[in-house]
Task: inverse folding
């Protein structure tokens, strides 16, 4: 089992990020869906801790008793490395994503119930705080897990991208300047030093386990490499899309999500293949 805490520092408030994240997840889903692959949104509805719609025996950080529950299916046949496709039976590369968004705390669990069952999971616990990633144990880990945890800072403007194909000029924080807020471009190294504006951190604790003899270490390392890639690319897009989401209300975001769900359902059946394919 590998545990890493990714600290993604962003030029916005925690309140702004709640809207930004939801908007950008919907947009990113469109970019990864088509040609029979991508994301199917099955449930997107409120949850209440008191109504037992929260995982049992797990703490709810952030002092929230309600939030938004989502359940998604990921069809990934050509979005994983060749060596995994060679080992996995046909139809086995469907993942489920269950998420509880009790902002500022969120928990997401990715599983493969049809094939790997209890031998595989990725758990992402996110806490969003108005600081520059300075808290040492924001997730309240016990000493034994704190000792295993590795901290990784992500600089969305200056970190090297995983692949040249990940670079999109329109999502380059070193070039973008928001017309609505005046924030950007992010040119310092690290960019948040002497930044004249709000700074927050998304603390993302990622725990993954892949029980397969001879492959466990390789796959778990690959998962963390991909998680860092996703966090970097996604948050570059979050910042550089600021003029699209800034000023939206939660009511507008929920309507946007409903429209996106309908579009995804249509794209996965009729649209062309899209997004990152792991042989790129």
Result:
């Amino acid at each position: 089992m590998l545990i890493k805490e990714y600290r993604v520092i962003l030029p916005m408030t925690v309140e702004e990020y709640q809207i930004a994240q939801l908007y950008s997840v919907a947009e990113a889903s469109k970019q990864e869906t088509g040609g029979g692959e991508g994301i199917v949104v099955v449930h997107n509805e409120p949850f209440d801790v008191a109504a037992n719609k929260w995982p049992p025996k797990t703490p709810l950080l952030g002092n929230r008793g309600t939030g938004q529950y989502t359940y998604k299916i990921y069809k990934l046949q050509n979005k994983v490395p060749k060596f995994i496709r060679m080992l996995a039976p046909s139809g086995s590369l469907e993942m489920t994503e269950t998420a509880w968004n009790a902002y500022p705390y969120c928990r997401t669990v990715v599983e493969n119930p049809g094939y790997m069952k209890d031998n595989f999971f990725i758990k992402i616990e996110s806490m969003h705080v108005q600081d520059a990633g300075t808290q040492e144990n924001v997730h309240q880990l016990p000493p034994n897990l704190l000792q295993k945890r590795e901290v990784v800072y992500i600089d969305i403007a200056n970190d090297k991208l995983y692949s040249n194909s990940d670079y999109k000029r329109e999502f380059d924080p070193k070039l973008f300047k928001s017309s609505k807020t005046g924030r950007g471009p992010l040119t310092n190294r690290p960019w948040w030093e002497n930044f004249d504006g709000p700074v927050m951190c998304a603390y993302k604790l990622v725990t993954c386990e892949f029980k397969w003899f001879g492959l466990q270490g390789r796959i778990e390392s690959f998962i963390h490499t991909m998680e860092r890639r996703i966090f970097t690319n996604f948050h570059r897009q979050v910042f550089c899309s600021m003029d699209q989401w800034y000023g939206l209300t939660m009511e507008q975001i929920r309507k946007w999500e409903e429209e996106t769900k309908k579009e995804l359902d249509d794209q996965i059946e009729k649209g062309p293949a899209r997004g990152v394919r792991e042989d790129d």
